[in-house]
Specification:
Layout lengths: L7 H16 L8 H13 L4 E6 L3 E7 L7 E7 L26 H18 L5 E7 L9 H7 L2 H4 L2 E10 L7 E2 L3 E4 L1 E10 L3 E2 L9 H17 L8 E9 L6 E2 L2 E10 L2 H21 L3 E10 L2 E3 L1 H15 L4 E2 L11 H7 L2 E7 L17 H16 L3
Parallel strand pairs: 3-4, 3-5, 5-16, 6-15
Antiparallel strand pairs: 1-2, 2-4, 6-16, 7-14, 8-12, 8-13, 9-11, 10-12
Helix pairs in contact: 1-3, 3-10, 6-7, 8-10
């Protein structure tokens, strides 16, 4: 077993990998250089079972332990970047204009590579580790996790449990956050087209103005949370897009409204889908207009299973000390497609501190390389805790 300083040399090496990946970000499924880099590193560690081309550019690699037969545990890292212009001003800033690693996936990939190098060298465990390098976490349907599950990785590689990790600004480096049950929300997306009657802006009385109707709908949707949802339950409805005419003097025939719904409950997803349409249709018809409605369930909630959460807490505390883990971390309403893997197999998702940095998805964000030490150590400790004895 190891304390955290045992991984210092690996952290220095992983820092070089992480900065290379940060300089060379790739988007969605188009991770050809990233996948090649990961595959070459895995092979250099002496890992012989490497399967590529899963969900286009995803990778699963297997490390057999030397302790005898045992289960297969999956460890997942996402690899894709975001279409954001970087403003971190670091020497290793993105070399690809308009693309950057603004959510820490470069660090996630480097941490799992560091753990893979250690586990392949020591093999001090029973059973098998399945290293899952996933594309397209940042896209809408079909996301990389969904496609990897649909392509059968859980059955194909005999994975019995699966674990994920994500960097978290605002948590101190060396600290972890986790909780049993819901830890991140689901993501649903909706589109409403308000269909009225357009005309000249000087003659609004001759129109059925969809702009005014859209404004009423946007305001009306807020009461679904404030007046029709139990205040002890979590529901977020945010309108994020509004598209109407492009000229000052035109009242358009239609207006497009789009937004997102976040919740921790499938029942509230049903409620939101039903009530958003009902509210929009009722308001529009009251003005003599009509609506078209589309509702897409994009990502399920991320739900930590009880026993696997206890295992994750034990591993993190064994690595960094009893005070290093907040095992009742506040739930985040952001969404994470790792939820698909947790629907397929029991497992747990843990947050790793990045310190007082810019938030994820900010142009100023950068992964804190000191956190690599704890991420590598956590993965190793998790495997040695779960697959020994």
């Amino acid at each position: 077993m190891h304390n955290v300083e045992a991984f210092r040399d690996l952290q220095r090496e992983a820092t070089r990998w992480r900065r290379y990946l940060h300089e060379n970000p790739e988007l969605d499924y188009r991770l050809h250089n990233t996948a090649r880099f990961v595959t070459e590193k895995l092979a250099s560690f002496g890992i012989n079972h490497i399967e590529t081309g899963i969900a286009e550019t995803g990778i699963v690699a297997l490390i057999q332990g030397e302790g005898g037969d045992g289960p297969t545990i999956g460890l997942r890292a996402d690899m894709d970047a975001l279409p954001i212009v970087e403003a971190s001003n670091k020497p290793w800033s993105s070399k690809i204009p308009g693309n950057m690693h603004a959510c820490g996936h470069d660090g996630h990939t480097a941490m799992l590579l560091g753990a893979a190098k250690h586990l392949a060298a020591t093999r001090n465990f029973k059973g098998t580790v399945a290293l899952i390098f996933q594309p397209a976490e940042e896209v809408e349907l079909p996301s990389g996790a969904l496609r990897m599950v649909q392509e059968g990785i859980m059955d194909r590689f005999g994975i019995s449990q699966v674990f994920g990790m994500h960097i978290q600004p605002g948590i101190e480096v060396g600290k972890f956050g986790i909780c049993p049950g819901p830890i991140m929300g689901s993501q649903d997306d909706f589109d409403i087209v308000v269909k009225g009657k357009g005309g000249h802006a000087a003659d609004p009385h001759r129109t059925i103005d969809p702009v005014v109707i859209a404004a009423q709908i946007i305001l009306g949707l807020q009461t679904l949370v404030s007046r029709k949802t139990d205040p002890l339950q979590s529901l977020v409805i945010s309108v994020t897009k509004l598209n109407a005419a492009q000229a000052y003097n035109i009242i358009p025939d239609h207006v497009e409204i789009s937004g997102t719904v976040r919740t921790l409950s499938s029942g509230l997803q049903d409620f939101a889908e039903r009530e958003i349409f009902s509210a929009a249709e009722g308001i529009a018809r009251g003005f003599g207009a009509d609506v078209e409605f589309r509702y897409l369930r994009s990502v399920p909630g991320t739900f930590n299973h009880s026993e696997e959460t206890k295992l994750a807490v034990t591993a993190a505390r064994n690595l960094a000390g009893p005070a290093s883990v907040n095992d009742a971390v506040q739930v985040c309403m952001g969404a994470e497609d790792f939820g698909y893997m947790l629907e397929a197999r029991p497992g747990a998702y843990i947050l790793l501190g990045n310190g007082p940095t810019a938030e994820c998805h900010s142009p100023a964000f950068d992964f804190n390389d000191e956190a690599l030490l704890y991420g590598i150590g956590y993965w190793v400790k998790l495997i040695e805790t779960a697959l020994t004895g």
